[in-house]
Give the backbone structure.
Amino acid sequence: MPYSPAHKKEVRKRIVEQARIMFNRDGFSAVSIDQLMASVGLTRGGFYSYFRNKEELYAEAVASFLNGRGKQWRDEAGVEAENGGLDTVRAMIDSYLSSEHLSDIDSQCPMIALPSDVARASPEVRAAYLSLLRAMSWLFENNLAENGAERREKALALSALCVGGMVLSRTIDDTKLADDVRGAAKQTALSMLGVEVQR
């Protein structure tokens, strides 16, 4: 008896979420279709009834973060995308540059976990990655007080500080220096808002 559309949709969602986690942990190249499908209790043959290829899954796994684990993380941090003002901007900076976010590899934003993989990936994967950056920048821009070009420039700078600070912190094999990098990125980001930070 064939599976219902609802069942197939649920299985696809499980595959995408498991792929996002495995790609975060090990990178795109190191995760095989066999490993991925075995981790959700399925065979390699079943993969192709859900995805054309691994690149399509990769693009979907990156894109899924925004309204999946990313939304859960923003909700937990008290980030209000609409009308949150500077409280939302600060909550986003505090949470994104936190030690908890850094240490939670499975749930990390793909912009931190996968930048070098994405740079070599297909246009579809790069488009999914770009959508995450645009969403972050929009969230900042939508809640900053400045107008026009100045607001957009500040939103992009805040995004670069958050993502760049975390990418460096993740790759540095020196805990103290990694903490200092995150702290410096956070200090600079919050100072752009006129917020005093206790170091």
About this structure: The chain has a mean pLDDT of 92. DSSP finds twelve helices and no strands in the chain.
